[in-house]
Amino acid sequence: MAVYTQLSAEVLADLVAEYDVGELVSAKGIAEGVSNSNWLVETTGSETNGKRFILTMYERRIDIAELPFFLGLLDHLAANGCPVPRTIHDRSGASSRMLHGKAVALIEFLPGVSVDHPTPAQARSVGRVLAEMHETAQDFPGTRANDLDPHASARVLADCGQDALAKIDAALPDVIPVAEKIADGWPQGLPQSVIHSDLFPDNVLMLGDTVSALIDFYFACNDAMAYDLAVTHAAWSFSGDGHGYRAEVGQALVEGYESVRALSPEEREALPLLAQGAALRFISSRAQDWIDTPADALVTKKDPMDFVRRLEFYRTNGTEVFAA
Amino acid sequence: MAVYTQLSAEVLADLVAEYDVGELVSAKGIAEGVSNSNWLVETTGSETNGKRFILTMYERRIDIAELPFFLGLLDHLAANGCPVPRTIHDRSGASSRMLHGKAVALIEFLPGVSVDHPTPAQARSVGRVLAEMHETAQDFPGTRANDLDPHASARVLADCGQDALAKIDAALPDVIPVAEKIADGWPQGLPQSVIHSDLFPDNVLMLGDTVSALIDFYFACNDAMAYDLAVTHAAWSFSGDGHGYRAEVGQALVEGYESVRALSPEEREALPLLAQGAALRFISSRAQDWIDTPADALVTKKDPMDFVRRLEFYRTNGTEVFAA
């Protein structure tokens, strides 16, 4: 939650002039994004491009070579009616530019707020939009491998080491053998598309019960659609710290999804393990971040145990939860 | 530069419902303000109150008992045509409310950007608007003492102590006797009004060469108008680190001011010392903040030496710079 780079009004005005969006009127650094800096930018506007935008500067984690995939995906989805912000291209047609040695993109601003405590009606909407996104992304030509699959996650945990994990929580090293089991049994051959793979509530903007935008596609990759549903289930259906499964929310999410795209028997059968893999993915990245983050750093560390509890829940109750 | 408090969309929606502004559409925490948290809020709007606002939560430094002064001042200035954001009052007529034990205010959003490298034309506009603000504030009924006058600043520096100051910079303790001299000779009886007293470039929003808003009045107090001009001169007329006086900018600022409100001979004569007092005010608060801030804290410490250089400049060149 930070703006890592300061950009003067003069620099921002020059940047904005590279786009057909009119002149700079306002720019506020916003406290969102852990891998990039973001500004809410207002201009005098143009007929084609409107006048409010998110300017993103890519600071970390994102490989610039992958930006055409991420930004092209936004354009493909937006052009086909999905509620995602489109990328504003500059006057030369480029979707990103370099500024002070970093890549920046100007992205459509969409209204909506991220809910903290989703209702079943909101989860139903999210499921529906997720399925629509999966179907629309089927004919997106770009591809990107999932570098956070359960094999990678199991390896990350093993590399952290028993001792370092135990320092975070005494129960955390127990996940290592579970991770290997999940990776070994990982389902193959499920229908794929480009998936979001990180659809937490803060990556969904809502107006009431309606999804106004899916945002932050920087983990998007080609993988099983049912896995994306499992990630979203793990992200939406629990109280904040992973205690307390909210059955009505989880159920509404899957129902919403199936109202657009029915799950095959193989997908439904795979969901309990896919959900464990989803929990594993966040356990491993959070454990690694925890270990890599200095004790006095300014970021709020996310507790991997929140997702250990979810993993345990899916191991115990997954079959029942995802029964048709 | 932070958002100190997280507010869920649900809490924000409930808060917004207390005002005649329509329903919540968007809220982004913005990376501004060191003593408070701010959100850029959009609503469906109402005819009287528009639809874009800054929501401020007062976190530190500001005494809640003083909020009626600060917010009432905004309303007085805005109602009389000064470019300052007005306060949106809630349905009961209150200008601030309590939320989670902290005071919050909903304030009109005004366009504009803060310039880093002001041009003379921009400085002229700022001078003009500052003078207009002083004249308009003459009949504002509220009063607030300046608790950062040179006597207070001299005391703060002395309380920091020679050793602590020397740790920041070997030359800093030399300011202690200078501070006493400034305080002893401080001019009395100059014409007063409510002054902004902190009008740095980031507290002015501009559209081109036009001032669209003066913001952040949380140091406003009753004091000499010429002192406010001196503060603004010290804040606007130097390159960032206090090296390099930008004569054209400083001159344009004073000319702009005088195009609205002529300085009396006494005010003009006092300016060199007032400017030294202005520099002193920021030296002392920065020195104190420097000492009070843990080495590993997340805030960027501001170097008091930037203003020691300005102080030296005004001691050497003040008479010449402010000659009619």
Automatic annotation (TrEMBL), chains A, B:
<keyword id="KW-0028">Amino-acid biosynthesis</keyword>
<keyword id="KW-0791">Threonine biosynthesis</keyword>
<dbReference type="InterPro" id="IPR050249">
    <property type="entry name" value="Pseudomonas-type_ThrB"/>
</dbReference>
<dbReference type="InterPro" id="IPR005280">
    <property type="entry name" value="Homoserine_kinase_II"/>
</dbReference>
<keyword id="KW-0808">Transferase</keyword>
<dbReference type="InterPro" id="IPR011009">
    <property type="entry name" value="Kinase-like_dom_sf"/>
</dbReference>
<dbReference type="Pfam" id="PF01636">
    <property type="entry name" value="APH"/>
</dbReference>
<comment type="similarity">
    <text>Belongs to the pseudomonas-type ThrB family.</text>
</comment>
<comment type="pathway">
    <text>Amino-acid biosynthesis; L-threonine biosynthesis; L-threonine from L-aspartate: step 4/5.</text>
</comment>
<keyword id="KW-0547">Nucleotide-binding</keyword>
<keyword id="KW-0418">Kinase</keyword>
<dbReference type="InterPro" id="IPR002575">
    <property type="entry name" value="Aminoglycoside_PTrfase"/>
</dbReference>
<protein>
    <recommendedName>
        <fullName>Homoserine kinase</fullName>
        <ecNumber>2.7.1.39</ecNumber>
    </recommendedName>
</protein>
<feature type="domain" description="Aminoglycoside phosphotransferase">
    <location>
        <begin position="27"/>
        <end position="263"/>
    </location>
</feature>
<keyword id="KW-0067">ATP-binding</keyword>
<dbReference type="GO" id="GO:0016301">
    <property type="term" value="F:kinase activity"/>
</dbReference>
